[in-house]
């Protein structure tokens, strides 16, 4: 609660306590006035002193320090009233003490206020005993017993529910803090996984770009040597292409190459042509894998699919087969490369449900692999989705658009 809201609530509770206590005092006055023979009417000064004590007791709840101090002050004010004006009106002073004890139990742990509660009990006991003796009671033992009972009920009774409520609030607050900590930890893990995946993609992009930009540089050198018409202009243009290609290559190596993993043992560029070897490696581990390739008759696999997109397809198949090996090693798996669509290529990995009686791996997925595959698909302008199938299996699908052919680029206005 905000400080302003809390101050308002404290003032409201204090004013309410004073109003209720004065109201009870008014009811007592009315009862006494209705039957003066049964209850002797106290002197006027006693009414005023009791009303003043009740107001001061309610005002003690506004003390800026801890709540347990207000409990001591309200109990001491009741004792002062018993010393100054003992009588039947003294019992009304128990109401502000009840409220102060309840508020103290809500805001202060019981282990921190045990001495305060004991001191308040002593003050209430002394006030009640002095009031009984000052009112003319001669049974000291009975008066002491009633004073002790009054102290326990007025101070101890409201502390029990207040302590229970405070404990529930503390447990709820601790649970919320734990959930917040878990959420922050999860977010940190996701950010770290995405950063690692992007770093891996940047490393692979470096390898691909370096390979192809080197080829551009070689081709530009060949053009520079072989052009026959307008050799001066062609030579200058080719030299500029070569120079720019080398500059891009150097910049790319400096910027992206910083993210390379020096400990990586596999530096080969992964393409669609390397997927059969990947499937064979996974099948050698005991997983039943079937590779299906669909392509136009006489066409080349992956025509119009750039090297970065082919790498994304390879990594998607690799991650999906790894998930099958971890979570459903006994399930049959089918890798499909559908290259029939002239606009895009589709790659899917479908694993059937495990055979009846097979044991599923108990390891739970973190979801980072799916995040990485979705990042790769977005990087190449494609799409990725994964989820359960109607046969209780699982399927991962990636759609990869083809790059425009050179003839298409020339026809574009």
What does this structure look like?
With 413 residues, this protein is α+β, with helices and mostly antiparallel strands. The chain folds into two domains: 3-181, no CATH class; 272-411, Histidine kinase-like ATPase, C-terminal domain (Heat Shock Protein 90), CATH 3.30.565.10. 63% of the residues lie in helices and 8% in strands. The protein is built from eleven helices and five strands; from the N terminus they run H-H-H-H-H-H-H-H-E-H-E-E-H-E-E-H. It has helices at 3-34, 44-59, 67-84, 94-107, 114-134, 140-226, 231-255, 275-284, 307-327, 368-379, 406-411, and strands at 289-294, 333-338, 344-351, 383-388, 394-401. A five-stranded mixed β-sheet has the order 1-2-3-5-4. Strand 1 (289-294), helix 9 and strand 2 (333-338) form a beta-alpha-beta unit. Helix 2 runs antiparallel to helix 3 and helix 9 (307-327) packs antiparallel against helix 10 (368-379). It starts with a helix and ends with a helix.
